[in-house]
Design goal:
The chain is an alpha/beta fold. The chain is built from 15 helices and 15 strands. It folds into 3 domains: 50 residues; 160 residues, Rossmann fold (3-Layer(aba) Sandwich); 180 residues, Dihydrodipicolinate Reductase, domain 2, CATH 3.30.360. It is globular and about 65 Å long. Bound molecules: NADPH dihydro-nicotinamide-adenine-dinucleotide phosphate and aspartyl phosphate (PHD). Its EC number is 1.2.1.11.
């Protein structure tokens, strides 16, 4: 795999290597030449050693593939997996329009950082699980269009791969978790039964939630845990990137708000109950008992879903108690030791006009959900605002954290 300059070194190591490699330019010229030669030899030895160590570290990484790699979510996967400490992207899949081309030619890269060097020239394959390109891969991240995701993801799982999907197709399967580690990390426990029942050669399927549902579920978790929730009224203001690339025509979304996103309201209302549900005696999910009413809107921001929420609690609480519960909530992903974990999974913003989409969506690298404006509600008990990044915590980043959890729990071997 590609040699990445400086990778695997801490700051102190980089400094000492720099020091050894320096040729000194002052004083006696002859001495300087000898010092320079000795330094150059030491420098070469050190860099060979480094290179060997880096190659060994790279070889130990788990080989992964990204399907739908050219799309909005797929590009986020490629960005977030660049330099990942556990995972090495070795294969990419997309439609036949992209297959056969090097990644940099196949995709119209829209991220704010360059394509990771090691991925630029990887040739995109068709999403055919039997292809040689996918042979050594243990983990498959899918950002596939839901028109095709269902069958393709299942075909990859059948060849023994751990598949982490962003599509809606398998979310409501009774033995497939909608996994959000800050909310329901225990739901990985259904996987051994799924592996056995589906006879997938050790492979399995894990899904993400719909992105608006993820933001709401993480944002409300501290409140659900402490007081219980009976009713949720949620109104979303969702980013354009949620509709994929190229998304809505500019003439439809500039200077506009579109009060309709197909099936989004239904997904928020059903998926959240499974996410907060429990695993029953038969190993499948039992829904949580609250009700949700969702109203979903597309607004003209690029990334980030903002949600205005009103809640009826099971145990009455003041706004101050709710704020205290959010602030006290631990960072579950950090406690689990997952490499992509942010400092906090959910934070409370004290400023009266926060969170705001443009200012707060990248908190925790896009993995943190922000909550603010907790106050009394005149109809229910409490109202508040939640914000999260739809293609990071709500999609690609969420899948990567899910895969990290499965590795940490021993469901994917590192050998
Ligand atoms: N955007 C978001 O915020 C979120 C999206 N999701 C879900 O994630 C998935 C991806 O969404 P998004 O990235 O926005 O979508 P895009 O439309 O941007 O990307 C779709 C990807 O699927 C590939 N694809 C399309 N048709 C085929 C085919 N017949 N065979 C193989 N590959 C194909 C495309 O490849 P090619 O370029 O070659 O056409 C592209 O890589 C969807 O299921 C979506 O519902 C979930 C949560 C949030
Ligand atoms: N519908 C979401 C993104 C999405 O694709 O959701 P799902 O994966 O549930 O279809 C949005 O527009 O912001």
């Amino acid at each position: 795999m590609a040699f990445v300059q400086g990778a695997g070194l801490d700051v102190g190591q980089k400094r000492s290597v720099g020091h050894v490699c320096q040729t000194r330019g002052y004083g006696n010229a002859g001495v300087n030449v000898r010092v320079a030669r000795v330094s150059a030899r030491r420098c070469a030895v050190v860099s060979m050693q480094q290179r060997a160590e880096q190659d060994a570290a790279q070889a130990k990484k788990i080989k992964v593939a990204v399907l739908g790699a050219t799309g909005s979510v797929g590009q986020r996967f490629i960005e977030l997996l660049g330099g990942h400490p556990w995972f090495d992207v070795v294969a990419l899949g997309a439609s036949s329009r992209s297959a056969g081309k090097p990644y940099e030619e196949a995709c119209r890269w829209k991220q704010a950082v360059p394509i990771p060097e090691e991925t630029r020239r990887v040739v995109v394959s068709d999403c055919d699980a039997s292809l040689e390109a996918f042979k050594d891969v243990k983990i498959v991240f899918s950002g596939l269009d839901n028109e095709v995701a269902g069958d393709i993801e299942e075909a990859f799982a059948k060849t023994g791969k751990a598949v982490f999907s962003n599509a809606k197709n398998h979310r409501m399967d009774p033995d497939v978790p909608i996994l959000i580690p800050p909310v329901n990390a225990a739901h990985v426990e259904v996987l051994p039964a799924q592996i056995k029942a589906r006879n997938f050669n050790g492979g399995f399927l894990v899904t993400n939630a719909n992105c608006s549902t993820t933001v709401m579920s993480i944002g409300l978790k501290p409140i659900m845990e402490k007081f219980g929730i009976e009713k949720i009224h949620v109104t979303t203001m969702q980013a354009i990137s949620g509709a994929g690339y190229p998304g809505l025509p500019s003439m439809d979304i500039i200077d506009n708000v579109v009060p309709y996103i197909g099936s989004e309201e239904e997904k928020m209302e059903s998926e959240s109950k499974k996410i907060y549900g429990t695993i029953g005696k038969d190993g499948t999910f039992e829904n949580a008992d609250f009700v949700v009413s969702a109203m979903c809107n597309r607004v003209h921001v690029l990334d980030g879903h903002l949600e205005a929420i009103s809640l009826k609690l099971k145990t009455p609480a003041t706004p101050e108690q709710v704020i205290e519960a959010i602030k006290a909530y631990p960072s579950v992903t950090k406690q689990l030791g997952l490499p992509s974990a942010p400092e906090k999974d959910v934070v409370y913003c004290d400023a009266p006009d926060r969170p705001q989409t443009r200012l707060d969506r990248m908190l925790g690298g896009g993995f943190t959900v922000s909550v603010g404006r907790v106050r009394k509600c005149t109809i229910n008990d409490i109202r508040l605002v939640c914000l999260g990044h739809n293609t990071i915590v709500g999609a690609a980043g969420g899948s990567i954290i899910n895969a990290e959890l499965c590795v940490a729990k021993g469901l994917i071997s590192r050998e």
